[in-house]
TrEMBL record, chain A:
Keywords: Chloroplast, Iron, Metal-binding, Oxidoreductase, Plastid. Residues 47-128 form the Manganese/iron superoxide dismutase N-terminal domain. One of its GO terms (cellular component) is chloroplast nucleoid. This is superoxide dismutase. Belongs to the iron/manganese superoxide dismutase family. Residues 137-254 form the Manganese/iron superoxide dismutase C-terminal domain. Residues 1-19 have a biased composition (Acidic residues). The lineage of its organism: Eukaryota, Viridiplantae, Streptophyta, Embryophyta, Tracheophyta. It comes from Zizania palustris. The keyword Iron applies. One of its GO terms (molecular function) is superoxide dismutase activity. It is found in: Plastid, Chloroplast. It catalyses: 2 superoxide + 2 H(+) = H2O2 + O2.
From TrEMBL, chain B:
It is an enzyme of class 1 (oxidoreductase). It comes from the Eukaryota. This is Superoxide dismutase. It comes from Zizania palustris (Northern wild rice). One of its GO terms (cellular component) is chloroplast nucleoid.
Amino acid sequence: MNDVADDESASDAETEENADANGDTVDALESSDPDEVGPVTWIEQQPLPYPSDALEPYISKETVEQHWGIHQHIHVERLNGMIGGSEWEGMSLGQMMLSSFNEGREAPHPPFFHAAQIWNHDFYWRSMQPGGGSKPSERLLKFIKRDFGSYDGMIQQFMDAALTQFGSGWVWLSYKGSKLPHVNSRSPIPSDNYGRLVISKTPNAINPLVWGHSPLLAIDVWEHAYYLDYEDRRADYVSTFLEKLLSWETVESRLKKAVIRAIERDGHVSRKHVRKQLLAQGKSRIRARPQQANENARGQTSSQEKPLGV
Amino acid sequence: MSKRTVELHWGKHHQNYVDGLNKQLATSMFYGYTLEELIKEGYNNGNPLPEYNNAAQVWNHHFFWESMQPESGGSPEGGVLQQIEKDFGSFTNFREEFICSALSLLGSGWVWLVLKREERKLSVVCTRNAISPLALGDIPIMNLDLWEHAYYLDYKDDRRMYVTNFIDHLVSWHTVTLRMMRGEAFVNLGEPNIPVA
C-alpha cells in the first residue's frame, strides 16, 4: 500500500531541483492562495492569464469576455458592495470564502457565494491554457493510475461527474490530504490517512477547499460557461476542455504545492519517514549525522532549501 | 424569447428530461404513476429520489410553456387583479416583488406565483433546481424558468431584462385566471359567510 511518503518523496526530489531555479515560488499565474492572510481593502479580479481569444475555437472570445468581463465582474462588484463595514472587510479573498462558508451546517453567510465564485473562476481560467490538453506527465500519470486505475478511468469518472451535476456547479480534481475535516487527528482507518486524488462535483459556488481538499483543476459547468458555444451539449464542452484546453503543467505544479500544504497543515510523520529517521539514528551512532534525522522527521526538503508555498 | 432559445429549450432540454424520465421509469417502482404523483412521492420530504428531478423538470417546463402567450403580459383583469391587490397591495408591488425574487435566486431554479393553501393567499416563491411548489403542498399559478439555459442566448447575464420582458410581454393572464379558478376549488379565498341568526 502506498502512503503519503510517495507524494512527499517525489515532491522532495522535484523541489530540490527547482527550488533554486524558481526563487520566487508565488507563481504569478496561480490563483489566490486560500491560506493567505493578508489585509486587503477591496477585492479585485485577477487578470486573465491569456488574451480573451486565446481559447478559440473551443471557447469563443465572446464567451470569455462575457464570462470573465461581465459575469465574474458582477460578483466582484456585489462582493465589494456587501463587505463594506462588515466583519468581512479587509480579509483576503480566500479567508473570506472559508470563514463565510459557515461550515456547511447551515446556509453560508451572504458573501460566500460571491467570494467563492470569484475564487472558483480565477482557478478555472488558470486551469486552462491555449494549446493545452495532451497528456499529463509521467509523475502525474503515476498518481492518476494509483488513485483511479487508469488515465481513461479518471476521464470517465470526470465526465460522469460533469454530466450528472444537476443544476449549476463545478467539477474538481483535487488532492485530498489525510486530515479529517475539523478534527486534528488521524483516522483509525489506515486507508484514510494517505493523500490521494479525488474527483468531486459541487453545486453552485461550493468548492472542495471548504472540505479541506486542495483543488488541482476545475471546470465550470454552470450553463453560462458553455451555452453560447455548445448550447446544451455539455458532454462536448467537457471533453473538449479535457482534450484541448486543460493545462496539465498547472495541475502538476498545484499538486506539488498541495502536498506541501497537506504536510504542513497536518504535521504528521509518515511511517516511511519514521523508518528513515530510525535508520539514520542507527547509522549516526556510527557516523555522526544528526541533521539528516531531523530533516527526515519533519518531511521537509534538505536543509538548504526554504519550504515552498505558504 | 428567440426562436432558437425555444427550439433548444423545448426541443432539447425539455425533451431530454422526458426521455430521461421514461428511461428511469422503465425499471423503477414508479412506473404507471402520473406526473403529479411522481413529483409528490419523488420529493420524499426533501430527500429527492432519482426520478424526482426529471419528473419535476418535465412538469415545470410544461407549466412554463403554458404560462406564456405571444404578445401578452400587461396586467390582469377582474378576479385575478383583485386577488393580487388584496395580497400584494397593488399590481406594481407584485411586479416588483416578482422581479426582485427572481434576481435574488442564486444558481438555477424557478420563480413562481403560487396560491398558498395554509395562508389562503397568493405569494411569490423561488425554488432551486427542480423543486416544485406541488411538492411543498401549494398550488402553482404561474412560473418562470431561471435556469441559465432559458435566457442565456438572448440576454446573456442580464436576468433583470429577461424577467421584466416576461412579466411585461409574455405572461399569459388568461392561463393564470383559469388556474386560479381551478385553485379556488381547493382553497377558499373568500371571507367566511357566517349567516346572521
